[in-house]
Amino acid sequence: MDFFELNKVLGAVLAGSMLLLCVHLLAGSIFAPFLPAKPGYKIVAKVQPSGAPAAKVETVAPIAARLAEADVSRGKSISKVCMTCHTLAKGAPNKIGPNLWNVVDRPRASEPGFDYSAAMKAKGGKWSFDELDKFLTHPQGYIPGTKMTFGGIDNAQQRGDLIAYLRTLSDHPAPLPEATAATPASSATTGSAQNPPHQHSP
Length: 202
Hints:
This protein has seven helices and two strands. By secondary structure, the chain is an all-alpha fold.
């Protein structure tokens, strides 16, 4: 390619570049975005006044008080969810979960022939009224690693009714504890509905 031909090619490239630049500038002037002088809305952070009243804390009666007002017949009805995985009669065999006859005040993880989880064995103690109440509120939360996958019973009085019925499943029912004043409810013990059944119990 001689010098003249090279100049023609370079000139064509330069001309093309100038044309693209002009088109770009023209398009920018035609399609420039319009910015309003005043924004359509303003985000405002909502701050609670320092003098505002604190959220109301619900209270739940201790298990002793709930047992004093418990309805055993309602507890028997609630116990049907337990029967999915447990037997309740004296001498009945274990199922997915251990037999619950005489469970109140029974040492934890002590039902013969049932293979308890390591977490349940390590917990120790016995199934007092208070321990049953805590466990039935949220089994996995109270004893992480338990085989019991039941979601728990949110309603405190329903737990009281159920435990009152479980107490009757014994030749010598444990004496009822003395009732005391109500205490603030935790997130695990408040609520009004019973969770759906899954598996296992104490």
